[in-house]
Amino acid sequence: MNQLRYLQLRVILLCCSCVLLSACFKESVAQDYTIGPKKVALFKLILADYCKKSFFGTVYVTSGDDVVYEANCGPRNLSSYTHFKRIAELHNIDPNTSGAEYQVGLNTSDSKYRIGSNTKEFAAALLQQMLSQEEIETKTIGDYLPWFPNNECKDITLHNLLTMSSGINNYSNNPEVYLNWGWRPYLYEPGLNLNGPEAFSNRFCTCQKQEVIPSFTPGSKFEYSNCNYYLIGNIIEQLEAEKQGDISSEFYFGNILKRNILDKLAMVDSGTFYAIGVYENMTTGYVDKYNPLLSDTTGRLPDTGVPDCQAITGLPDCADILESPYSNPMVLYSAGNMYSTVKDMHFWDKGLYGDSILDHDQKESAFTPYQKADNGAQDDKECQTQKAHNKVQCGKKPRGKKNDRAFQCEYFGYGWFVNYVPKHDRKKIHCPDKPSSSNIMNKKKYEKFVSYSGNYPYSWVTSFSRLLERNQAVMVFSNYNKAGYETDCIAQEIRNVIFYNKAYRSKHCKRVLIGTEQKQLFEWY
């Protein structure tokens, strides 16, 4: 009898061991983050659907120090490429010959792109370098900007600015801002002793045109506004220069950025735009001739297309691809005045895994999901598009778990969108308003990544995603998006392959590819 019980006990222990080993093995399989040939083959198939037809740009996928996928589409400069093709044909040069000397006008991994709102990641990091977390959470605009009007908005905290929860309205819908602002050194309103960026903020970002109060209780919700990061730039300069008005150029935001981040990471092909400058390998932005946003253009109208472009280059419909309307990047200041390359942004990604830019606690603060962003944004955008064509009546979805589900939950941290996706299986999940009190933070169920997609209203879109658990990054930078969504669709589809080993394409991106959906002006950050 005792022997029988002993055997039974051994069998039970053996079964328990098997269950435990099985669970450990399953977890170890799930933790295999290798990007191998099968995934790369899917990347190539994804890009082939967009490349040259509706997308010019560079795709760069990294894992640790390694570049696991690199591809380039279309011209950096269409005129240069067309001219090169003419000469190549005249002199019997094979235009497909590899080597930089033969790739005249084409995009490469050294192409420089306007990275737009990706600038905010850098601005947030600079402020974190200068101030303690306690100061960020308790100090206000009025504590650092003595020129700020004495109204309720001066009591907004720096934390509210960083998390897009200030209640200060966005200046981006005001065409006046893109005409004469951004030049330095230039005291636009010298009677007030304000330099250019300070005068801009004083005119557009001080709540003067919103009844001198925040549009909602600061900290109560997310609402995107470039003013938040414009004011952060003002504060960064004030902290360094210790005065307002006519400051030395060493205290300009771009030069502070260069000293404190770019030089440390050897990001030699990155920086901010100035009134006078030569930027080697800078991409030219392009826009489709039938883009509905062209009627909203301020400044120079787009150049006409090259009539014989398609015959010479083989690029479909390239006679309808116009050079982007003039836009002054300097006006975007600390909210969007940067350029970079995918190679340099890989340095930025790697630098954020160490302590040379931000320490562990600062990164924890930067990547915390403070405010819920608009997870239903795509449904809303589609609704707005259809409404514009009188197809449907739109209303708000009822609240509740069933009506607040998405394939990806999106929040905002300090200069980053903080995202969560389900592990192992792509399925819709509930996105709580307060993620800190929910199992959205459960690492066994959800994977976290941070991202930003910097947009210019007519051409450049730069999607940068950092997959934190994997030490991997996905960069899709472009200088032409026919519909406006292509860059983000490519990035999303590549991330899906990395997360789920399968190529998922949303209904939205399918419509983008067949040309039935275009971005609306209000959607651009």
From TrEMBL:
InterPro entries: Beta-lactam-related, Beta-lactam/transpept-like, Diverse_Enzym_Activities
Residues annotated as signal peptide: 1-22
Domain Beta-lactamase-related positions: 106-483
Keywords assigned: Signal
Origin: domain of life: Bacteria
Descriptive protein name: Beta-lactamase
Organism expressing this protein natively: Pseudoalteromonas rubra
Lineage, top ranks: Bacteria, Pseudomonadati, Pseudomonadota, Gammaproteobacteria, Alteromonadales
